[in-house]
Fold NADH dehydrogenase.
Amino acid sequence: MSKPKIVILGAGYGGMMTAVRLEKELKAEDADITLVNKHNYHYQTTWLHEAAAGTIHHDRTRMLIKNVINTKRVKFVQDTVGSIDRENKKVALKNGEIEYDYLIVALGFESNTFGIKGLAENAFAIRSVNTARKIREHIEYKFASYNNDPDAKDSDLTIVVGGAGLSGIEFLGELVDRIPDLCKEYDIDPNKVKIVDVEGMPFVLPPFDRELAKYAQNYLESKGVTFKLSTFIKEATPEGVKVQKKDSEELEEIQAGTVVWTGGVKANHIPADSGFETNRGKIQVTEDLRYPEDDHIFAVGDVAWSSPKDAERPYPPTAQIAIQEAENLAKNIKHILHGEKTEAFVYKPKGTVASLGEKQAIGVVFDHKLTGKPAAAMKKVIDDRYLLMLGGVPLVLKKGKLNLL
């Protein structure tokens, strides 16, 4: 009798942790496990804002998959997923197809422009290692060209950030750390650099405690960031953005050399395109993370609509939730293979920390509010804890942030 085939699509937080935990939960004779990902590396999505600003090298954010998983237990296939054929239990890849008995969909997110005119063409988005690298290189090019290009304009040194959620605020924190170094390196007057954040809500960091969010806003403003709250980007152009204040009909043009959109993400399009019943693009799963219409398919991370019972909104798309879902799912796969009852997924929040650069942060950890350096130290501990869970002490020593404490 052949072993069941378990296929994991995507090597983000949910997919990677599922693969690592299955490797520990199952014996070699229990199942064949295959992980499919378009890159040969896994990357820390929560570190991309640092790579985009240039405060860390982009290679620091990623690790080769073969160095994390046991390739004798988990087969890795580098390929791009095209579609999922539920009827025949096959996944179409760019370079072939793969059959499964149990499928775990962990395909992650895509940037969501909400239909804003010109945004896809004229703005950057922090969504991958390569896009983060492009943002860093673009900003550095603008600074390097300012004193050498006769056509350079002061607005080339203006950076507009769309969105003041977690990603936007963390990127701003890295920018205010990075800009002084760029000015010194390229002999630019810091007063010529402008950083503008445009946010539709009347406050920053909507999910956070208001006191902590105000701390973050005040700190960033003290470093030169201008916030335009209750304001919406209506169009992005090659010269910058056009914005509109809430309850106003007038458009204001902000000329900028760099526009970075952090205003939202959406679930990967492949499940919906493959005929899955979705809610806002997400696969609405049962309490054990299973697709209701197929007992052999599961979903975790940004592509899964996982929520508390009877909640109208899913859990937010965070690494913490994806990791906990992966741990629960690995146990449930083991239960299923052994004919046992599955366990309901119960999210146990451990807190959230938002970095404001290397030495500043805000957050709530185990119901305790933290600001400043203590919060920044806790953010590094959280980052290293994930590495410890994923690859043990060797991975922490190789990729961790302990040396920055």
